Amino acid sequence: MLVLGISGSPRRNGNTEILLDEALKSAGEAGADTEKVILQKMKFSPCIACGSCDNTGICVLKDDMQELYEKIIAADALIVSTPIYFYNVSACLKAAIDRAQALWARRYYLKEPLLLKDKPGYLISVGATKGKRLFKGTILTIRYYYNAAGYVLADQLLVRGVDNKGDINKHPEYLKAAAEIGRLAAQGK
Ligand SMILES: Cc1cc2nc3c(=O)[nH]c(=O)nc-3n(C[C@H](O)[C@H](O)[C@H](O)COP(=O)(O)O)c2cc1C
User: Whose CA is nearest to atom 7 of ligand 1?
Assistant: First the structure.
């Protein structure tokens, strides 16, 4: 069982990365192999809509995303974490999501068995404010990202009202909830 975590925050060791670490630690304790990818450290371009992947399933942009495609396909469960930026995911995560168009083509045009899956995916997100609709855009975006990549959104941890770096540590209940996400991911639930 391989649980892949993708950290979508440009702020290293911030609130969402702390929760992701907690989830991966707990997945490891539950017996899964784990791997963490930090988008902020990767070099990749946004999708250029060239259309090549429609026919080949392969992205023409030869950058760090090529390796991430393979990791997403190889993993059995995926946990994505992102801060809320203007009511959606961070820009680096959105760029990575748009690059999943190549995976979408492999699933829907080329019908590759490797992508025709519904593996469990999880979302961890934190925003500073407390509005009812704070996570609406993010949930929709992540649902369709997961669908393109062969996953379904199985569970989510959505935290309102936490802003300053590391303040999530003042909330043991959220750390516990992140650990529970990791446990579920390790069980493929
Ligand atoms: C560019 C930017 C945009 C943001 N937009 C929102 C927003 O629309 N709503 C909100 O509640 N918080 C917003 N925030 C606050 C972050 O979501 C919050 O600080 C979060 O805890 C950051 O998580 P991180 O430490 O994992 O990066 C924004 C922060 C930044 C830097």
Answer: 86
Residue 189 has pLDDT above 90, yes or no: no
Residue 175's domain is classified under what CATH number? 3.40.50.360
**Domains contained in the chain, number:** 1
Q: Give the model confidence (pLDDT) of 13-60 as tens digits.
A: 999 999 999 999 999 999 999 999 999 999 999 999 999 999 999 999
For ligand 1, pick from 39, 163, 167 the residue to mutate: most ligand atoms within 8 Å of CB.
163
* Ligand 1 binding pocket includes 182 (Cβ within 6 Å): no
CA dihedral defined by 174, 176, 179, 184, rounded to 10 degrees? -100
Calculate the dihedral angle through the C-alpha atoms of 43, 185, 88, 61, rounding to the nearest 10 degrees: 30
Which amino acid appears at position 41 of this protein? K
Q: Is the CB of 128 under 6 A from ligand 1?
A: yes
